Amino acid sequence: MGCRQRSERSRLLRVVAAGAGTERAAIPDPRRRLPGRGAWLHLDPGCLEVAVRRRAFVRALRERGPLELSAVRTYVEQHAVPPPTVEPEAGQHLMGTR
With contact defined as beta carbons under 8 Å apart, do 41 and 17 qualify? Predict the structure, then answer.
């Protein structure tokens, strides 16, 4: 969601909105079982920060107002996984490596 990169679901965290009225919060759903619309996020603090800056949670979860994100921040910090690296094929160079 934040970095807009595709990944296998096993590398992503599902996030759902929960709560009532103005007390809505985004919460992690690592077992992928909670009801409701979900948004997918890499377990990378950088990806989370990009999603927050872009207000991606509100749009992806189709919420009207801001969401409390402390539970998602805590989960990502505790379970952070470095983003996958892309290895160039033989004879190819990644940008900025020459």
Answer: no
Model pTM above 0.85:
no
**Residue indicated by tokens 């990169």:** 5
Give the span between the Cα atoms of 41 and 16, in whole angstroms: 11
Q: Give the distance from CA 97 to its chain's centroid.
A: 28
Cα–Cα distances in angstroms (integers) from residue 56 to residues 2, 17, 29, 39, in the given order: 7, 13, 17, 9
CB atoms within 10 A of CB 1: 21
Give tens-digit pLDDT for 51-81: 999 999 999 999 988 899 999 999 999 998 7
Q: Give the residue carrying structure tokens 């985004």.
A: 26
Residues 28 and 41 sit within 8 Å (Cβ to Cβ): no
Tokens of 50: 């990009």
CA dist., res. 32 & res. 3, Å (int) = 21
